[in-house]
Amino acid sequence: MNDADVYGQLKQYLGKHITVSDEQLALFCSKFKHKKTKRGEILLRADEIAPYSYFVNNGCLRVYMMDAEGRESTRFLIFENSVGTAFPSFTLQEPSMAYIQSVEPSEILYITHKDFNGLLDTFPGWERVYRIDLEREYIASIRRIESLITMDAKQKYNLLMSKNPALIQRLPSRIIADYLGISQETLSRLKSKK
Amino acid sequence: MNDADVYGQLKQYLGKHITVSDEQLALFCSKFKHKKTKRGEILLRADEIAPYSYFVNNGCLRVYMMDAEGRESTRFLIFENSVGTAFPSFTLQEPSMAYIQSVEPSEILYITHKDFNGLLDTFPGWERVYRIDLEREYIASIRRIESLITMDAKQKYNLLMSKNPALIQRLPSRIIADYLGISQETLSRLKSKK
DNA sequence: CCCCAGATTTGACAAATGTCAATAAATTAC
DNA sequence: GTAATTTATTGACATTTGTCAAATCTGGGG
After folding, report:
1. Which positions in chain A touch B74 (Cβ < 8 Å)?
2. Is A185 exposed, middle or buried, given 0-12, 13-18 or 19+ CB atoms closer than 10 A?
3. Are B141 and B134 in contact (CB under 8 A)?
């Protein structure tokens, strides 16, 4: 894939919801910069204000918290062809509770908060696309809350298996465990028993 | 409060974000119907498609799920001066996993899905107000996910106490417990110990 | 104002999950 | 390819939380 293609997936993502001219698309994409990350690279640290929102071309970003004892909890995962960041920090421009890490070597696009908000004011249809995306992500978070307040460890794991098996194959089980809010030992036992 | 005033809070809510003319406000409000509910009244049952989104003038609505054994889990609470519904069902117009119940005698406004979407297309500024509200609620849900995957029962209760003491005073502890995803007995013991 | 259904508390016990430590397996970096 | 490092598994045990049952409390409706 040459440099001219790095915006192809972003254009497709936008085109799924609205139809815009090629010049408009080019203008939209010009706000995004391109970057390749190494495995394990940290893109944001806690207490920093998230400057960017990311579109993942390939690879995976992980938004996670760390407690005083160094224990990590994965709040969110961002895979190919989706947008994400440390959402509260980016949106409110306040210090982040979370880190962002590239769990795989990834190829990503990123946009500043200022440019992001600028597009909302100036780019026709972008506020709608973003709003619909927000609805989708909010619904996903509601489903996750439901599973967290109603299910035990095995049920949560089985649900993830059925809804997102790719995630389980792809990520180390340590991350699966702290995404589900259980210990790695418990997860390991679930896998062998069931 | 007479009938002419039932839209006062909704107008204030809208006015917090954008400035609109009185006629526009009146048009906006005309899409909302007014209703008083009894304590315990069910507004939506699981498997129904949520027809309405609600603005609560006073009182409190509760969005909850019920498992096969009849155990309830509170997904969401909607207090005065805020908007809410069984969000996934209302937004996607698909059968709801959740019930909506009025936990107190309440006074509410409600709007159909069709009118809600109509306003997004026709009412200047409404998509923005709604989008910003979505961001706020999505952030709240992220915070809740964080507390669910990182905290034990006592920590979750203490957090709720510090962030939302009114909620604890106002609602029966059975509901507090299933909002936190713990049993009422565990909650009762936390309260006496700490 | 009283009664009663529902809510809360408490006790005894069971089950689920976490913690710590040791070992085994896998993956990365060189 | 191999050593070094991380990751995953397993065992033993502690802790938390859930479950069921009974007793007590409470507040809303008549």
Report:
1. 149
2. exposed
3. no
Distance in angstroms: CA A15, C1' C23 = 53
Q: Name, in order, each residue with C-beta under 8 angstroms of B145's C-beta and a sequence gap of 6 or more.
A: A75, A141, A144, A145, A148
Contacts of A88 in chain B (CB under 8 A): 139, 142-143
pLDDT, one tens digit per residue, over B121-173 is 999 889 999 999 999 999 999 999 999 999 999 999 999 999 999 889 899 99
pLDDT digits (tens, 9 = 90+) for B88-118: 999 999 999 999 999 999 999 999 999 999 9
% helix, strand, coil for chain A, step of 5 = 50, 20, 30
Residue A53 C-alpha, separation from nearest chain B C-alpha, in angstroms? 14
A34 — phi, psi (to 5°)? -110, 145
Task: Take residue A128 and report the two structure tokens written for it.
Answer: 């709608």
Considering only the beta carbons, identify the residue of A74, A138, A144 that sits closest to B87: A138
Question: pLDDT tens digits, residue range B43-71?
Answer: 999 999 999 999 999 999 999 999 888 88
Residue numbers of A between 82 and 121 with CB closer than 8 Å to B: 87-88, 91-92, 97
Band the pLDDT of A3: cuts 50, 70, 90: low
Q: What share of chain B is helix, strand, coil (3-state, %, to 5)?
A: 50, 20, 30
Q: Which residues of B touch A97 (CB under 8 A)?
A: 146
Q: Stated in angstroms, how far is B185 CA from D24 C1'?
A: 14
The alpha carbon torsion through A152, A180, A132, B109 (nearest 10 deg) reads 40
Query: What is B57-119 written as a DSSP string?
Result: EES-EEEEEE-TT--EEEEEEE-TT-EE--HHHHHHT-B-SSEEEESS-EEEEEEEHHHHHHH
Taken in order of first residue, the domains within chain A and their CATH numbers are 3-124 (2.60.120.10)
